[in-house]
Known about the structure:
By secondary structure, this protein is of the alpha/beta class.
Amino acid sequence: MRLLIGGPASDDLTDEEIRELYRPPRLPWLRVNMVGTVDGAATGDGGKTGSINNPADHRVFHLLRRMGDAIVVGAGTARAERYGVADRPLVLVSRRGDVPEKLLAAPPGSVLLATCASAPGLSSARDALGDENVLVLGEDSVDLASMRAHLVDRGLAHLHSEGGPHLLRDMLAAGIVDELDSTVVPRLIAGLHTRITAGDGVDVPLSLDALLEEDSTLIARWLVR
């Protein structure tokens, strides 16, 4: 993997060099990691990212995931991508209070849920995860700014989010995203596919901090201005 923008040119970055390149300039910090094709599709067959990502994307994705204190993801994405328990807290975001079936029996404290008071699944989520692991943030929708503040108060200051597209859009609208890490894989798949953001329009300016390349895959680190 080579560095094109963001420092001295390098044709063979080590894992440690990549981690240093992505080190947050301060804490708290929330980064979002997304992947898409050249023609803008964020998922491929079956609505999953697994059908479009590749080894270069996997390498950076897993390095960034291990840098974070917690993983923030929409419950729908966790369900579609069949998330299991991770080696750090998994924070699910769901307006309905849904906990994917695969995570219902997770060890105590390994899964947190950010939801709202009107969520139909609130009681079941508390039974499954424990009251202390269900964050009720807002009446009819999840207050994402409060979610970030609550997680930081728990000592989870470096947050790594994996979307999905609706959650990314909502976090951008809430002004809580510090960094977008986007991979563009060298493929065109056409069809009707979600982009890396979905929902009502937002206009968020970015600045390019780093650009990596491997086998025509472009991996960019964007900072929110």
